[in-house]
């Protein structure tokens, strides 16, 4: 398919600057200049400054609670067991500083001299001999009066608007059972006067409800509102030191609890706070996977500390049909097909090459040679003019014998033998629609695709495209890049989907001949109730649009963008998997620069 980043950049409204026009006339210089420019914008230092600006703006904004609705009541359970009196007092002061008013407090202590509580509010102290957080919280559970409860531990930092931020999200979704937002890293210091100071950095601007991401890390955070009645019905917390709340989140959402999301940063984690211990994380995840009926999954540490890689095993050995549209381009298509046969460990696949009108004798002879060497290779003639990615893929799918379809661009190159095992394992899950992977540019250091975000650059854009793996990224960028997660859409340069699901929606829409057909396919499948998934555990190179002729019918492409926008206007306006605070003018998942 053509370079979506190039297309959506041209669709963006407004005239280009003369400097940009100059770069376009000197593509080599333009690439270098753009790369340097975006590297500066995406650097850790630049994003740290942008977050400081974001915090300043938030401090000037008043959180508007709907006065016509009853404010949800929350029981704050503050665990100070094992803390020094000074640390316990500072944690208590943070709770007491909340701007929200509809809350009560239970302090869990293991000392006969707990912190002194002010009068005038429903406060209590429970001195418990329980040696674990689960036992202490469960002892407090029967006496909690709030609609919701939130557990605040020694590594959690409440900011003055923490409860108010979650209350706003709750009022917007009054039926929610869990309410969460993002968090940041907070370095706490105390000056000579005993005043506590918080230096905030490394925010994680979380996406909307995302079951796959919750299997990758406890992304809902520890400062989560739980509906109290559901926690009681679930038997309270289980004794999984460090992973009690993650386990509770998994159990409640698996049981059908509804989830509400705040785009804001609702709390902090103390700098240096430990992640969930590995042994505990494995227990939590294995318990969740067993309860979901998939106990054979592989659970392994992810690429980032505190993250986990879940791989679903392939059930049986279904035939996979790898559909590759191509015309001429001998070096390009040969590299792609050779890499599939040389670097794929999954044994049961066929390659259906949809030839759209090749007349190069070298290519035609190569087809015959590959067919002699590989019985699983066949060519489907589809000499359509003009070229249509949508129709050619549909033609290949119609000839495919496999239970799973993999649509693969001819300008891709397989990097790791397990790529197909990973995609097929995900695609077999009954709740999953389309599966996409991490695509890298040929330098193997620059991201080309890590999912697709709607509303980026006015229509849609490849998530994190252009980020360099050898540069420091923000916490949000790293987590979105290196974790398996649900995503609104993925690029058809490499996707896996059950053939029955593909046929159910009629395949790609021929009206979207060249571009946006993959995003449209994902959204139509998503509308049936399936989740689309991005996984970084399958990686390929994408040489990107090498076989598309440079002369393009921009009138048609503009029309395709208009058609797509009219069809999916709500998702373009608000992609649930893209945090509302992140810039829409870039694919980088970074904060906009708001001014100082």
Provide an overview of this structure:
There is one protein chain. The chain has 596 residues and is α/β, with parallel strands linked by helices. The protein folds into two domains: 72-311, Spore Coat Polysaccharide Biosynthesis Protein SpsA, Chain A (Alpha-Beta Complex); 318-573, Spore Coat Polysaccharide Biosynthesis Protein SpsA, Chain A (Alpha-Beta Complex), CATH 3.90.550.10. Helices cover 34% and strands 23% of the residues. It contains 20 helices and 23 strands. Strands 12, 13, 14, 15, 16, 17, 18, 21, 22 and 23 form a ten-stranded mixed β-sheet that branches. Strands 1, 2, 3, 4, 5, 6, 7, 8 and 9 form a nine-stranded mixed β-sheet that branches. Strands 10-11 form a two-stranded antiparallel ribbon. Strand 10 (298-301) and strand 11 form a beta hairpin. Helix 2 (18-25) packs across helix 3. It is elongated and about 90 Å long. The two termini are 41 Å apart. The model is unreliable at 1-34 and 546-550 (pLDDT under 50).
Estimated radius of gyration:
26 Å
What is the terminal-to-terminal distance?
Answer: 41 Å
Strand content: 15-25%
The CATH class of the largest domain? Alpha Beta
The tally of structural domains comes to 2
Show unreliable segments. Answer: 1-34, 546-550
- CATH 4th-level superfamily of the largest domain: Spore Coat Polysaccharide Biosynthesis Protein SpsA, Chain A
CATH architecture of the largest domain: Alpha-Beta Complex
How many strands appear in the DSSP assignment? Answer: 23
The percent of residues in helical segments reads 25-40%
